[in-house]
Design brief:
GO terms for molecular function: acyltransferase activity, transferring groups other than amino-acyl groups. By secondary structure, this protein is an alpha+beta fold. The protein is built from six helices and seven strands. It has a single domain (6-166), classed as Gcn5-related N-acetyltransferase (GNAT) (Aminopeptidase, 3-Layer(aba) Sandwich), CATH 3.40.630. It has a four-stranded antiparallel β-sheet with strand order 1-2-3-4, sandwiched between helices. A three-stranded antiparallel β-sheet has the order 5-7-6. Bound molecules: coenzyme A.
């Protein structure tokens, strides 16, 4: 996957229908504990507005200019992609760009994220980018009962001292 085809961009109000379309798919919604479901236009508008008011925290993920997903780094790093585009390295590429931007433009010392252990793809994305395991907790979500959640953390120093994390593998 080349960085040339995956890019981050700010979300704008005309992205609302596309965000609704992506986030209402159960394959996406089931692993996003904080995302309302059904995901209505009003939810998408709130998400876009938050991004507009907090530059650098929310990005649309574009693949060949089409909006295919989004990520946010509000409290924790979270990301999602239209299932049609899964398995091509797009999430890894997008999150890598977001981390690079974050650590080169701020002094933030760490980024937290996590995944439900059934969500192998998400765990792998974080692992490829240098996140390491912290605590595991059992939790219940709207879509998963008694799900095991693995928290992950990436330290700034690790990102800056391991150039290989910034490169495609
Ligand atoms: C998680 C998600 C963003 C991954 O997107 P993606 O673009 O397919 O991810 P990538 O292609 O960059 O990387 C996926 C990795 O997981 C691996 N993978 C995928 N399914 C897997 C499985 N069932 N078991 C083990 N590994 C798996 C892939 O092989 C790849 O690893 P590799 O590069 O070493 O081969 C996407 O599945 C998604 O949007 N899911 C729903 C929302 C979500 O779960 N968000 C994360 C919560 S924060």
């Amino acid at each position: 996957m080349s960085d040339a085809t995956v890019s981050l961009r700010p979300l704008v109000m005309r992205d609302v229908p596309r965000l609704v379309e992506i986030c209402n798919q159960m394959q996406v919604a089931r692993y996003l504990a904080h995302m309302p479901h059904p995901f209505k236009r009003s939810h998408a508008k709130r998400f876009v507005t938050f991004g507009m008011e907090n530059p650098g925290l929310v990005f649309g993920i574009a693949f060949d200019r089409l909006l295919v997903g989004a990520l946010q780094m509000r409290d924790q790093l979270e990301y999602f992609l239209d299932p049609k585009y899964w398995g091509r390295g797009i999430a890894t590429c997008a999150v890598r760009q977001a981390l690079d931007r974050l650590f080169s433009t701020t002094l933030q010392q760490q980024v937290k994220s996590g995944y439900f252990i059934q969500n192998k793809a998400s765990g792998r994305v974080l692992e490829k980018l240098g996140f390491v395991k912290s605590i595991q907790q059992t939790t219940t979500t709207r879509h998963l009962s008694m799900a095991l959640h693995q928290s992950m953390i990436l330290q700034r120093v690790r990102w800056l001292t391991k150039p290989a994390l910034k490169k495609e593998k």
